[in-house]
Amino acid sequence: MAEKENRVLAQNRRARHDYFIEETVEAGLVLQGTEIKSIRRGKVSIQDAFARVENGEAFLYNMHISPYEQGNRYNHDPLRTRKLLMHQKEIHKLGAAADQAGYALIPLKIYVKNGFAKVLVGLGRGKKKYDKRETMKKRSAQREMERAARRG
């Protein structure tokens, strides 16, 4: 059961393509009702999600958690804003860094750790189009070198 608990339930693959991730922080999530049951089933999406620091608190926007099938009237709003649980120092540090031009707080992964839902939040600096092309060139060159090494 322990190995299943720490598996990644949702991942934002696009984030590393669109941003240079400079720092990551693990944060807890404040959930309501049946949200944790949906998260454990993997019915969560963070593709369009982003985080923001407001009034000394961190919030996660646009994270979609599908309603739990057996939840009936206890279900929640799928796109509701959720509070992130972090130490005050981390919140101030990330908030100050995210206020700089070109920086954003992006959720990278969602997983369950010791029974609690966690989100890995990254401080990302936006890539320009030429940066993305450069990354793709490096990746394809690396792939070619690996293929050549395997062939002999």
- Write down the overall mean pLDDT: 85
Binned strand content: 35-45%
In sequence order, what are the helices and strands, one letter per element?
A: HEHEHEEEEEHEEH
Give the termini distance in whole angstroms.
42 Å
Would you identify the CATH H-level superfamily? Small protein B
Shape: globular
Q: Report the helical percentage.
A: 25-40%
| CATH architectural arrangement | Beta Barrel
Number of domains: 1
Number of helices: 5
CATH secondary-structure class: Mainly Beta
Task: Sketch the major β-sheet.
Answer: 7 strands, antiparallel
* Total number of beta strands: 9
Radius of gyration based on Cα positions: 18 Å
Which segments are poorly predicted (pLDDT under 50) over 5 or more consecutive residues?
none
Class by helix and strand content?
alpha+beta
CATH topology: the name is Small Protein B, Chain: A
Task: Supply database-style keywords.
two-stranded antiparallel sheet, globular, 5 helices, Small Protein B, Chain: A, about 150 residues, alpha+beta, seven-stranded antiparallel β-sheet
Blueprint (SSEs and pairs):
Elements: H1 2-5, E1 8-11, H2 13-18, E2 19-29, H3 35-40, E3 44-45, E4 50-54, E5 57-61, E6 64-65, E7 82-85, H4 88-98, E8 103-113, E9 116-126, H5 129-151
Antiparallel strand pairs: 1-8, 2-7, 2-9, 3-6, 4-5, 5-7, 8-9
